[in-house]
From TrEMBL:
<dbReference type="InterPro" id="IPR032710">
    <property type="entry name" value="NTF2-like_dom_sf"/>
</dbReference>
<protein>
    <recommendedName>
        <fullName>SnoaL-like domain-containing protein</fullName>
    </recommendedName>
</protein>
Amino acid sequence: MSLPYPTAYQIEEMFANRDVPSIFHTYLADPIDVTVVGQDFTVAGHYKSMQAFHDAIYARVSKALKVETIRVEIRRVIGGGESAWASVESLCTATSKYEKPYYLEFVDLVRFNSKGKIAQMKEFLDSGQRRLSALAYIELRSSSTVVKIDLSYIEKSFFFSCLAMLSQIDWGVL
C-alpha cells in the first residue's frame, strides 16, 4: 500500500536538492504559499508564487554567495507519509563572494498537496548565525568614494529551535 504523501526519506531527498533551484522547484506546487520568518533577514516575507519565491530567495543568494560552494545538510525530517505535514531541519554552509564563511540553520514546516508537491512552506531562519558575514561588507557608494563596513563582528545569537515542540503544535492552524 502506498502512502498518500512523501515519506520522511523522500522529503529528505527533496530538501537535499534545495541548493539546485531547477531540481527543488520540481517539488513545489504552483502556486505555492511560502512564508519566511526572521526579523533580521531581507528575504523574510510572504510569497504566493514560485517566481516570487525564486526571486526573493535564489536570486538574492546567488548575488551574495559562491553558488558552487553551497551545501545543504538535512539534519532531521519529522512527518510525511500518512501526514500532509512535515518538518525539515537543515544546515546550509557556503562561502561568500568576499571569501567569508556562511553558516545558516533553519527549519521548514511544509504541507504537501494530494499530488505530493509542497503547497505550503513556513521557514524559520536562525537570524543570529553571523548571517551578515556572508555579505561581509556593506558598500556605501558616492560619486567617487566606496566605503566598506565590515559586518563580520556580529555575534551568534540564540537559534530558534522548534523541533522539540513539534508534538505540541496544532498543525491545522499553520
